[in-house]
Amino acid sequence: MKTHVDVLDTDLLVVGGGAAGCAAAVEAREVAPHLDVTLVDKAHVSRSGCLAMGLNAINAYLPEGVAVDDYVASVRRDAHGVMREDLVRSLAEQINGATHRVESWGLPIPRDGRGRPLPKGPRSIQIFGESLKPILARRVRGCGARVVHRHALVDLRVRDGAVRGAYFLGVRTGELLEVRARAVILATGGAAGLYRTPNRGDARNRMWYCPFNTGAGYAAALRAGAELTTLEMRFVPTRILHTAAPTGTLAQTFGGREENLLGERFHDRYARAWNTDRLTTPQRLRALLEECKAGRGPVVLRLGQTGAGGRDDVLGAYLDMTPAQVALWAAEGLDAGGATVTISTSGPYILGGHTGSGLWVDGGRRATVPGLYAAGDVTGGAPKKYVSGAWVEGFIAARSAAADIAAGALPLPGPRVDAQTEERARALGQPAARGGALDPTDATERLQRVMDEWAGGHSTFYELHGRRLAKARAELEALEGDLAELCGRDPHQRLLAAEVRDRVLTARAVVAHLEAREETRWPGYQTRLDHPEPRDEWRCFVNSRYTPDGRIHTFRRPLRPSPAGPATGGAPCPP
User: Fold this and answer.
1) CA nearest to 232, candidates 398, 99, 339, 356
2) Tens of pLDDT along 459-469?
3) Which of 11, 134, 236, 290 is deepest in the core (most CB within 10 A)?
C-alpha cells in the first residue's frame, strides 16, 4: 500500500510528551533558543502518558537531613546491587532542583510552618498534582517548541549508522509523517500490555501503568541497533484490588500495614527467614505471593488513620491521582478508622522509572547509536527515578543533544535515509488495508496469553523456569511471523497493528533477558524456579542488541562500566 508521506524538518526531535519529554523540550529551548525543537506526542500533551490522571506525591526527593549518598544507598539496596551508580547519583543530585523548577511553573507543593515541603515518606513529598500534566504542557507551549499531537512513533530514521529523525503514524489519519532531525530524544515511556492482566471482560485493560505505553521506544531503539539493559528486572506492583490504584499512599501517609487472611502481619516472618533486617520492594511482593500460595490470602492493608477527617483525607489523596478509586469508595463506602483495603498485584510492566529496564546510556543520556538520546521510563540503569528523575533525565538529555549539535557532531539530517529503514517504516505503519487475516486485537491477546502462561505472568505467580521461557521464545517467534498478516482497515486499526508489533519485539527482548539471567536476583519480580538463589557471577548487567538476522543477542556488562561502551562490547551470556 503506497501512501503519501508528509515531511517535517527540525533540529531536535523529542518523541513523547510525558514528564521527561516535556522537560527535554523546555530545557532545549532554554539552553539553545536558536534550536528548532519539535515534540511529537501520541495523544495530546495536556493529558497524555503516565501523569494523565494526576499525581499526589513526588516519590524521589531528598528531604532535610537526607544526603545524596543516603539516597544512592537506598536505591542500591532495593535494586539488590544492580544499578548504574553514576546515573542514580546524577539524579539524586538534581531531583530537588528539578522539583522546585516545576513548582515555579505552577505545581502546588504544600509546606509546613517553616516552609518545608510536607513529607509523604522517607524520600518523598506531597503535592497537589491533579493538574500536573496541563502545567507541563503550558510550559512547553510557552517555550517556543513546536508540538505535533496524535502521532505515534513507528520507527527511527537511520542514516549512515546514526539516528536522524523518526517516522510517525497519524492516529486519526492513518498517514505516515517523516520528521528529519539532527538528534532524537526518546521519551516514550515503558511497556504495558505485554502480559494479560488479572481482570477479564471489559476490564481486561484495567491496569496500573499507562496502557498506551506499548514499548514503542524499546522496539524502535532495538531496530536502530541501540543497546538495552536489565529488561529482566520487571516491575510487579502491589495495588488495590479491581482498580489497580497505588497502595503507597495508604501505607506511607495513612499507616496501612499488610495483613493476611488470619490477621497476621507477616513481613517480619519473611525477613527472619531471608536473613534481612527489612524487606526490599521485590521481597515484599514475594512475601505477599507466598501468603496467597499458602492459602492465607487475600492480603489487606489495615489503615492506621483515625479521626473525623480520616475518610476525607484518604479520598482527597486519591482524587489527585486515581479518580476511579474514589468513585469505587464512594459507591462501596470507606471507614478510614481501622478500615481494611484488599490488595492484589498488577503487571508485570517493563519500565526504567521503578526498575532498571531501558536503553543503555552514558551520563549525558546518549544511547549507543549516534544521534539518539533517552530520558524517563525508556532509559535503563537507574531504578526508582519516578517523575522527578524523569524531569532530570529530560533536562540532561536536552543539554547533551544541544551541546552535540553546537559542536557539529550532529550534522543536518539530509533527505536520504537507509532504504531498508524507509521500507521498514512503511511496512510497520501501513499494514494491508484489505486482505489481512489477523486482527490486531486478536494478536495482542495471543501475545498476552503466551507471556502470562510461559513467561511468568499473574496466573503463575510471576514465577519463571528455563523450559517455560524456551516455550515463550518459540511462541513469540511464531507470532512475529504471523504479524505479516495484520490487517489495518482504518486508522485506529493501523495504530493497533503498529502497537502489537512493538509489543511483540519488546516481549521477545524481555524473554531473552529472563532466559539469560540464570539466578533469582529480584524475588517476586524475577523468580527463577530452576535457579532460586542469587549468584555472584550474575552481579552484573544483562544487555541486549537486535541483530540483522532478527535475533536478540544478550551479553553481560560489569557493574562499573564505561559510560556507554561500544555496541559490540560485553561478555556474552552463556548459551
Assistant:
1) 356
2) 999 999 999 99
3) 236
